Amino acid sequence: MYENTEQPLENIKWQRTANRERSRQRQWYFNICIVAALLIILAIDMANPMLAVIVFLGAAIICLHGSREARTVEYELSEKGVRVGTRIYKMENIEAFWVSELGGDHLVLRSNRAVTPVHSIPLADIDPRRVGAFMRRYVPAEKMEVPLADFISNYLGF
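The chain above was modelled as a monomer; its predicted structure follows.
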């Protein structure tokens, strides 16, 4: 990593509700159950009981996750790293970043972790140019997009 001789910028802090506060009406749960039932019937028809169990468990998890109350997560950018709630991604472990505007402004980080190397952090009302200027002082910028799983979960309101 290059040596930074400039004065550190002021930390950037913000909060955001983790799961959008969408009212889950009966129709939403009914639709999940209908889709799950159709997939279970298809799995049984294909003589694949394991798939039927996985679909059932997946539908149950989606319904339980959808009924949770929204929680607020605090984010902070500092010279030490990026804090998401209680988790800290140290700057020396972040290989690259990008501020993506696809589906709302997100800070996308690529770290040296093997299991989850790409992280997407929603920026809420924070100016993306300010975030980009801050991150550029510590990490190189590299064009990346929000991971598909994050994009889908944001679209579904999780």
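The helical segments are 26-45, 49-66, 128-136, 148-156.
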